[in-house]
């Protein structure tokens, strides 16, 4: 099946710092999604990307859909303590098959 | 006003037992899913289901069976539970023609 690798696996940053994480795939996807999972909760959609090269922002979050359609990155600017959680990229194959990345665990130190 | 809800939140049971996990969505969505998240937090789709079609991930053992009494519910029945079934199971739903899947809070299953 599709393999989506995220890096880094985990990050420890100071509050106020910017964060960058990326996701690479062995397959092409037509839609890329970024989710955040808080402890004890289900994943929540942050940003959806539909076109190669697309750059989309949602508040302090910015994500890009790679030109090759095999990668995506997520940036978080001016991190705050509530940004703590696990960030997952996901590639959508067809209408139903959502393949998740390995996750990036973010810790923000106040 | 919960969108996607699951019960129970925690389930501890013995090997060999049969158990069900329930999922309900009040979003009017017509496609529902079950995912499994292992101890390394890796999320993998198990099933997708709408009124017309059940799509099963080929790696899912046939001890797992989804049951949908109506469009708003998709329950997961597991027979003969094994230690390796211990995981967090997430239900999700979406509306046709929209990519966004909305996830439930998860059911933490521990098989002893």
Question: How is the secondary structure organized here?
Answer:
The complex is a heterodimer of chains A (110) and B (112).
Chain A: E1 4-7, E2 10-14, E3 19-25, E4 31-37, E5 44-49, E6 55-58, E7 61-65, E8 71-76, E9 85-93, E10 97-100, E11 104-109
Parallel strand pairs in A: 2-11
Antiparallel strand pairs in A: 1-3, 3-8, 4-5, 4-9, 6-7, 7-8, 9-10, 9-11
Chain B: E1 4-7, E2 10-13, E3 19-25, E4 31-37, E5 43-50, E6 54-56, E7 64-70, E8 73-78, E9 87-94, E10 102-103, E11 107-111
Parallel strand pairs in B: 2-11
Antiparallel strand pairs in B: 1-3, 3-8, 4-5, 4-9, 5-6, 7-8, 9-10, 9-11
Radius of gyration of chain A: 13 Å
Q: Point out poorly predicted stretches of chain A.
A: none
The general outline of chain B is: globular
**What structural category arises from helix and sheet content of chain B?**
mainly beta
- Total strand segments of chain B: 11
What is the distance, rounded to the nearest whole angstrom, between the alpha carbons of the first and last residues of chain A?
39 Å
Largest interface: A-B, 23 and 23 residues
How much of the sequence lies in strands of chain B comes to over 45%
What's this entry about, in short?
The complex is a heterodimer of chains A (110) and B (112). Chain A has 110 residues and is mostly beta strands.
Walk me through the structure:
- The complex is a heterodimer of chains A (about 110) and B (about 110).
- By secondary structure, chain A is an all-beta fold.
- Helices cover about 0% and strands about 55% of the residues of chain A.
- Chain A is built from no helices and eleven strands.
- Chain A has strands spanning about 5, 10-15, 20-25, 30-35, 45-50, 55-60, 60-65, 70-75, 85-95, 95-100, 105-110.
- In chain A, the strands form two sheets. In chain A, strands 2, 4, 5, 9, 10 and 11 form a six-stranded mixed sheet that branches. Chain A has a five-stranded antiparallel sheet with strand order 1-3-8-7-6, with no helix packed on it.
- Chain A is globular and about 40 Å long.
- The termini of chain A are far apart.
- The mean pLDDT of chain A is about 95.
- Chain B is mainly β and about 110 residues long.
- Helices cover about 0% and strands about 55% of the residues of chain B.
- The model of chain B has no long low-confidence stretch (mean pLDDT about 90).
- The interface between A and B is medium-sized, with 23 and 23 residues.
């Amino acid at each position: 099946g599709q393999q989506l690798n995220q890096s880094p696996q985990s990050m420890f940053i100071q509050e106020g710092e910017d964060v960058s994480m990326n996701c690479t795939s062995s397959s092409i996807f037509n839609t890329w999604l970024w989710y955040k999972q808080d402890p004890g909760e289900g994943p929540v959609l942050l940003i959806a990307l539909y076109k190669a090269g697309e750059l989309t922002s949602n508040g302090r979050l910015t994500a890009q859909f790679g030109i090759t359609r095999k990668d995506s990155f997520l940036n978080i600017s001016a991190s705050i303590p509530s940004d703590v959680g696990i960030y997952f990229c996901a590639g959508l194959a067809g209408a139903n098959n959502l393949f998740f990345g390995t996750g990036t665990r973010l810790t923000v130190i106040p | 006003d919960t969108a996607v809800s699951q019960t129970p939140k925690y389930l501890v049971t013995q090997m060999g037992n049969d158990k069900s996990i329930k999922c309900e969505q009040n979003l009017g969505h017509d496609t529902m899913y079950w995912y499994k998240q292992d101890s390394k937090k890796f999320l993998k789709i198990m099933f997708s289901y709408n009124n017309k079609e059940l799509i099963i991930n080929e790696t899912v053992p046939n001890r797992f069976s989804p049951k949908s009494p109506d469009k708003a519910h998709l329950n997961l029945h597991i027979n003969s539970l094994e230690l390796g079934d211990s995981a967090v199971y997430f239900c999700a739903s979406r509306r046709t023609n929209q990519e966004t899947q909305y996830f439930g809070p998860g059911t933490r299953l521990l098989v002893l």
